[in-house]
Design a protein that fits this description.
The complex is a heterodimer of chains A (283) and B (470). Chain A is of the alpha/beta class. Chain A has helices at 22-27, 68-75, 110-122, 142-148, 168-176, 190-200, 240-243, 254-261, 265-282; strands at residues 2-11, 14-20, 33-37, 45-48, 51-53, 58-64, 81-82, 84-89, 100-106, 126-133, 151-156, 163-164, 183-187, 207-210, 226-231, 234-239, 246-248. Chain A has a seven-stranded mixed beta sheet with strand order 12-11-10-9-13-14-17, with helices on both faces. In chain A, strands 5-6-2-1-7 form a five-stranded antiparallel beta sheet. Chain A has a three-stranded antiparallel beta sheet with strand order 4-3-8. Chain B has three domains: 18-126, Alpha-helical ferredoxin (Fumarate Reductase Iron-sulfur Protein, Chain B, domain 2), CATH 1.10.1060; 141-236 and 403-469, 3-Layer(bba) Sandwich (FAD/NAD(P)-binding domain); 239-400, 3-Layer(bba) Sandwich (FAD/NAD(P)-binding domain). The chains are: A alpha/beta (283), B alpha/beta (470).
């Protein structure tokens, strides 16, 4: 069992938790993920690490309530426990040698982008961050990004905060003004990452994406997290859990990944509704 | 003592009705009653030089335990089996006895061999207590990576020799392939749990949710005071055929399909883990795992389950017993057939059509076997222009696995072969001092009992190694 030592509701659908998991905290690096189960009948879900404190032995997770499991997790209180917490899994984000990086985060993906931005800053790199949300209500981690970015641009789809528009708009402006970066790292919804990759492509700047497909074991056993890279015209199968979760964005077949991501949409919607009803009945 | 039973036939195993069992996940084989067990035991001639023992990878004293059954001393029989086997209830169910102990039985020369596996299961299921002997603690610490059959055997042998044993398991539940791979109807999970609990009672420590190579690496285990490490991390990444359509929705690896059902209990009505149920299911492959996947799909409510295998029935690598069970339950076999493409639904007029991207069928080609080559093997060769389509909603790829790269990537100096299997000598020792390995991580996909055999050899070698250092 793993204790929730700190909990903070960041916005109506996004929750932050620090989980006591000393073995995981000792090793975790930006870009890696964990797998958890809320209770002994729960499903295994992967969540990318949003931070870690090696001294306190805690791992920070920030998650959006999208289904039954994340809903159930969001109901857990500080001091309560979750059943299983396993990691760190996947390869850390490659940050060696980077001096000038553009970070593009979307929605709850910003939670995963933050430790990368922080680590880059810590290493002395110049960090430009673009973070996007649907609206002001859903904005998270602005102060944290401000603290580790040389320049921060906040975008909202409806213009209720920052600048109106999607994250590609300021990127296009930067490139049009001749801004150069060693690398672009983008984390967010698949559709957003696809468009960011499209926006970066003409510049030829390397662009990494963080994939978060459906997973079961997370250790390279089930193959459920497979995705296709297109390398020199060849379609190559990779497993996000052991080959990723970071990939060269130019190579990822996003359309296929989006299709696979909604494979259990019906099941998940039913499960979510049932879980909501169940807990509403109790409370 | 009564005379031997000279019947040429084994006592039949009582089974659930084939039609009925296709709808439930309860165990198919019900086990011998006392009467059947006694009658079958009397078929054993108690050979002076028992060849069956040589056929067993862990050399169970087979005539010894069968004699105890004749004396109706189940406890005594269990004590004899557990001297060399840590998992009798498991082996009695899933060992391929027909190619091992039973293949060497003298009764098989004329008639059927003694039902050794069935008797072993009878003993394991009916023994009430287990006083496994344990030597005094010797203070030496050993670590085990993975709690599958090889790791459990290694742990069981060394705890009995007095070692301080810790097993690290990546999943939330112990058992490895016994838990995630082999279905409930063939190996009830309660039995796996009981075997693990017996080891816990003997003092073996289990740490779940720890991935060696990520959470802790092997070098750190030695820094933590472990004097030897056994790697039994199992088979790894599932293989795919590299044909078009394998990423469509509804295509699973057998590992994923079985893990969802077995480990995550997706077969239960209130399961939190989804799995595609019902409809038409195609399982590609002919091994035991393919049989398990096909029979699982049937129990999940499939209208029709078809095995597609590129060779003929003679070459089918699965255990005969499991193939017969599958046929009885109504699984169809499309042999000498190979998939060339998986077909999916695509509505060009409506990109939001919910059926888009789901499997609709498998395009296959007919195969024929070539003349035997110099090794006597007959290769399957495609028959030109023989393509045809089998309708399907779900496709399960069961064509083997490649070793997991995790431990190799994170352990300096650990030698692997060109398939990625860990290289070991005859004692199970790897290229690193104090690091042993066995099971599928070494051999690639193989049997439970051969993994147990490897665990046993490595345990003995570890004991000798640690004693030689002291």
């Amino acid at each position: 069992m793993f204790e929730i030592v700190y909990k903070k509701v960041l916005n109506p659908t996004v929750t932050l938790m620090d989980i006591k998991a000393p073995l995981v905290a000792k090793k975790a690096q930006p870009g890696q993920f964990i797998i958890l189960r809320v209770d002994e009948n729960g499903e295994r879900i992967p969540l990318t690490v949003a931070g870690y404190d090696r001294e306190k032995g805690t791992i920070r997770i920030i998650f959006q309530t999208v289904g039954a499991t994340t809903y159930q997790l969001s109901l857990k209180k500080e001091g309560e426990f979750i059943q299983d917490f396993c990691g760190p899994l996947g390869k850390p984000t490659e940050l060696d040698g980077l001096e000038n990086v553009l970070i593009v985060g979307g929605g709850v993906g910003c939670a995963i982008a933050l430790p990368i931005a922080e680590e880059l800053k810590h290493r002395g790199a110049s960090v430009t961050s673009v973070i996007g949300f649907r609206s002001k209500d859903l904005l998270i981690l602005e102060d944290e990004f401000k603290a580790c970015s040389d320049e921060l641009i906040v975008m909202t789809d409806d213009g209720s905060y920052g600048t109106q528009g999607n994250v590609c708009a300021p990127i296009n402006t930067m490139f049009a003004n001749g801004k150069k970066f060693d690398k672009v790292i983008t984390i967010g919804p698949l559709i957003m990452m696809k468009f960011v990759v499209g926006a970066v492509k003409p510049t030829g700047i390397p662009c990494d994406v963080s994939m978060n497909p459906i997973m079961i074991d997370g250790t390279g056993m089930c193959g459920g997290c497979r995705l296709t890279l297109i390398q020199n015209g060849e379609r190559v199968t990779k497993f996000a859990c052991v080959d990723g979760p970071d990939f060269n964005g130019y190579e990822v077949d996003f359309d296929e990944a989006m299709a696979r991501g909604v494979m259990y949409k019906d099941f998940e919607r039913h499960a979510y509704e049932e879980t909501c009803n169940l807990f509403k009945g109790v409370n | 003592m009564a005379k031997f039973n000279m019947s040429l036939k084994k006592n039949e195993m009582p089974m659930q009705d084939p039609i009925e069992r296709g709808k439930n996940f309860k165990e198919v084989a019900l086990g011998y009653t006392k009467e059947l067990a006694l009658d079958e035991a009397m078929r054993c001639l108690e050979c002076k030089n028992p060849t069956c023992v040589k056929g067993c990878p862990v050399n169970v004293d087979i005539p010894g335990f069968i004699r105890k059954i004749k004396e109706d001393d189940i406890g005594g029989a269990y004590a004899i089996i557990s001297k060399t086997s840590s998992l009798p209830a498991v082996c009695g169910r899933v060992c391929p006895q027909e190619t091992q102990c039973e293949a060497k039985c003298v009764r098989a020369i004329k008639g059927e061999p003694v039902g050794i596996g069935r008797l072993e299961r009878y003993v394991a299921d009916n023994a009430l207590t287990c006083d496994m002997q344990k030597e005094a603690k010797n203070g030496h610490k050993v670590a085990v990576v993975g709690s599958g059959p090889s790791g459990l055997t290694y742990a069981g042998d060394l705890i009995k020799m007095g070692y301080d044993v810790t097993v690290f398991e990546a999943f939330h539940t112990e058992g490895g392939v016994l838990t995630y791979g082999i279905p409930e109807f063939r190996l009830p999970k309660q039995i796996v749990k009981d075997e693990v609990d017996k080891l816990k009672a003997l003092g073996v420590k289990f740490m779940t949710n720890v991935v060696i190579g990520r959470t802790i690496n092997i070098e750190e285990l030695f820094e933590d005071g472990y004097e030897a490490v056994f790697v039994g991390s199992g088979a790894g990444l599932p293989n795919f055929m590299k044909i078009p359509g394998e990423s469509l929705k509804g295509v699973y690896s057998a590992n994923e399909f079985l893990t969802r059902s077995n480990l995550m209990k997706a077969y239960k009505t209130n399961a939190t883990t989804p799995i595609m149920k019902g409809g038409k299911v195609i399982v590609v492959g002919g091994g035991n795992v393919a049989m398990d996947a096909a029979r699982t799909a049937l129990r999940l409510g499939a209208a029709k389950v078809t095995i597609v295998y590129r060779r003929s029935m003679t070459e089918l690598p699965a255990r005969r017993e499991e193939v017969e069970n599958a046929i009885e339950e109504g699984i169809e076999f499309n042999l000498l057939t190979n998939p060339v493409e998986i077909l999916g639904y695509n509505n060009p007029d409506d990109r939001r059509d919910v059926k888009n991207g789901f499997v609709t069928g498998v395009k296959c080609i007919k195969m024929e076997l070539s003349d035997p080559d110099e090794n006597g093997r007959r290769r399957p060769v495609a028959v030109p222009n023989s393509e045809f389509v089998i309708e399907a909603d779900t496709v399960v790829m069961s064509i083997g696995t490649s070793p997991n790269p995790l431990i190799k990537q994170t352990t300096k100096g650990l030698e692997v072969n060109r398939w990625g299997g860990i290289v070991v000598n005859e004692d199970g020792l790897t290229s690193l001092e104090g690091v042993y390995a066995g099971g599928d991580a070494v051999t690639g996909a193989s049997t439970v009992i051969s993994a147990m055999g490897a665990g046993k050899i490595a345990a003995k070698a570890t004991d000798e190694y640690i004693k030689s250092k002291a």
